[in-house]
Fold this protein.
Amino acid sequence: MCTVTYFPLKNKIVLTSNRDEKPNRSAQEIHREKGIFYPKDATKNGTWFAVSENGNVIILLNGAFENHQRKTEYKKSRGLIVLDLIKEENIFNALQYIDLQNIEPFTLVIFQEKQLAEFRWDGTEKHLKILDNSRSYIWSSATLYDKSTREKREQIFQQFLQSEKISEETIWDFHHQKTNDLENGITIKRQNTIQTISTTQLVISYEMTLKHHDRLNEYSNPEKIFLNNEIHTSSS
């Protein structure tokens, strides 16, 4: 997994993730636990998309920069690392000190207090990059999509930016688009059972709405999150 997009719209931020995984890893509902909201992985109990009621967001993609050779065993699931970090008041500080040795490589898209960042763990080193929160972005998992495919998906994304009136609804449609490319399209269904099993979207304005769509069972669950503090989405 996954395919993740970030859009700064007028008076709101929209973060959306397609989860490309085996069907037995699906999650039907949004799980709530001590101010944390997330779809819960059916087999490992972690998550790929976590939101806190103070407005922090973490979205997980498998792999760092390129596909890696997997070990037979790791210390902890990457989805549990997401849950560890989202509980922290300052995610960026927590990333400095968290021990990631023997954790499989991953990428995090982080939104905290108007700041957008990309964090990559390549299995040896941490890489944190602060991004321009006034721009739109797409990320594709390095374990599923090679460099050439990621570049093609970036082109599809750029075409969408130029041809559409962007809204949370059209972004949702973008993540649900179907093409003849079942291997590398925005929505996939590969013969080795990896497929797009769900879409999760967070809309942040002066309130937050988290919507999760289990695409295997056609179950959709919107959740309104009440904040501990007011969130402003202006990029200034």
